[in-house]
Design goal:
498 residues; alpha/beta; Alkaline Phosphatase, subunit A; 8-stranded mixed sheet; elongated
């Protein structure tokens, strides 16, 4: 009995020792297991089915025909599946206007962003891109796609998109941001932008977005400086194409490129580009007395983020200080400078809100007809409309939007508009390229290619598509149940999908 009892005790001790050794061995394995192996385990437990997810990439100012100028093997490869010949920007074809129209599915009159530079007289507020004012949710109407997406329990991750670093209401009761986002910073390298996307892509399923964005600005920078299809633009296109290649290789390595469960990828642009020259400039103050203080001197703190605005913002800080003090001394007898008045001083016949191919003009009170008459036939190279007469094809005369001003000047393709003082000081700023013209010029048309399991095997037959349909395309891919009201039409995009 005693012997048996001893044997049992030894057996228990041996079992306990074995259990202890096993526990120690397991903890050693856990301590030394590297994060990649852990991640592999996660991926096996939560398979990466990304067929209802989408990455939307914008290459700023990539004109519809740039694939013909450049080598761009990666973008050409994508065009084998889905290629829309011309992606039509909204009117006017400006960066902020277009990106926000795409992502809300709304024409600018209803999205709130009708120009890169705006003045709201009722609230006495000025909007200019790159300024603190552009982070005010007041300006941003409609609902960007990331909010619609998150309202249905999905997550979004944005490495830049116009307004993705602004709190916007949409249909929510408080300002909402994308789940994960970076504030716009043009100094973040393209590699870091794409690696950030990969980081989000590798999150465990419960934390992983189904909607991502990326944005690249170099093609726009070179287009403004050297003109479309210049050597520098071609180099920029091929450079971005190389980064698209880096992205594709990363997706391939994860089994997410051109596979049944792969990620859907769209590459598009906000507008095209056309050649400009200092010999084609209309100087508006040759025809009327204008006040340009809204343009020249408001909110220049982040202008370095938007170098392509050199024709919109004309003076450096010192010149602005001098100009403002001049305005203030002139206006002492009247109390306020012209800067903050709802209508321009009687010293001027009109206030110009922005110098852009679509220019907004506020005539002085009582001088509406007189200013219109002076401008309408002044140049062979512009068309001048009263707001209510802007052609309906532009969807730009909604009376409910006060940010669209009483007189709209539309410059012919390739022309520029300025005041004489600035033009004489910086004539070379008008050489190069520009966009922002009426959206029915072919040169203003943008680019669209896509690849992924949600799309049909091949469709190159759509000749033109308005870019506000992007909202619907995203909605279709992720399967939104309750999209925000928008100007898109589902039947325009149905042929893209299986
Ligand atoms: Zn742009």
């Amino acid at each position: 009995m005693l012997g048996n009892s001893k044997t049992r005790t030894w057996k228990v001790i041996i079992i306990l020792a074995l259990v202890c050794m096993l526990l120690i061995a397991t903890s050693v394995i856990l301590v030394f297991q590297n994060p990649e192996e852990e991640q592999t385990t996660n991926i096996i437990q939560e398979p990466n089915d990304m067929s209802k997810s989408v990455l939307l990439i914008s290459i700023d100012a990539f004109r519809h025909d740039y694939l013909e100028c450049a080598v761009a093997p990666n973008l050409k490869g994508m065009s084998d599946q889905i290629h829309i010949q011309k992606l039509i920007p909204p009117f006017p074809s400006k960066t902020f206007v277009s990106h926000y129209s795409q992502i809300t599915g709304l024409y600018p009159a209803w999205s709130g962003i009708v120009a890169n530079k705006m003045y709201d007289a009722d609230h006495n507020k000025t909007f200019s891109i790159g300024s603190a004012s552009s982070y005010d949710s007041f300006w941003w109407w409609g609902e960007p796609f990331w909010i619609s997406n998150q309202r249905e329990g999905h997550l979004s991750g944005t490495v830049f998109w116009v307004a993705s670093d602004v709190g916007i209401y949409g249909r929510n009761e408080s300002p909402t941001y994308p789940t994960y986002y970076l504030s716009y910073d043009r100094d973040i390298t393209y590699k870091d932008r794409i690696d950030q996307f990969f980081e989000w892509l590798e999150l465990p399923k419960s934390k992983r977005p189904n909607f991502y964005t990326l944005y690249f600005e170099t093609v726009d920078d070179m287009g403004h400086k050297y003109g479309p299809c210049s050597e520098e633009v071609i180099e920029a296109v091929d450079n971005v194409d190389g980064w698209i290649g880096y992205l594709i290789r990363g997706l391939e390595a994860r089994g997410l490129w051109k596979t049944e469960n792969g990620l859907n990828v769209i590459v598009d642009s906000d507008h095209g580009m056309t050649k400009t020259s200092k010999d084609k400039v209309i100087l508006i103050d040759d025809y009327i007395q204008i006040d340009t203080s809204l343009i020249h001197c408001a909110h220049m703190e982040h202008l370095h983020l938007y170098p392509s605005l050199k024709n919109d913002f004309h003076y450096n800080d010192l010149e602005c200080q001098e100009r403002n003090s001049r305005l203030l001394s002139k206006s002492n007898s009247r109390g306020r400078a012209n800067l903050n008045q709802n209508s321009p001083s009687q010293e001027y016949e009109a206030q110009v809100v922005n110098f852009s191919p679509v220019t907004q003009i506020i005539p002085a009170e009582g001088q509406e007809d007189q200013v219109f008459e002076k401008l309408v036939n002044a140049s062979q190279n512009w068309t001048v409309y009263k707001k209510e007469d802007v052609p309906s094809k532009y969807h730009y005369s909604w009376e409910g939007n006060d940010r669209i001003k009483p007189i709209i000047v539309i410059i012919d393709l390739g022309w520029s508009i300025s005041d004489r003082a600035y033009y004489e000081k910086y004539p070379d700023n008008f050489n190069g390229g520009n966009h922002g013209y009426a959206n029915d010029y072919d040169d203003m048309a943008g680019f669209f290619v896509a690849s992924g399991p949600a799309f049909v095997q091949e469709n190159n037959s759509i000749e033109k598509l308005e870019n506000l349909e992007i909202y619907q395309i995203l909605q279709k891919i992720v399967g939104l149940q309750n999209p925000a009201p928008n100007n898109g039409t589902m039947k325009n995009i149905e042929s893209l999908f299986k």
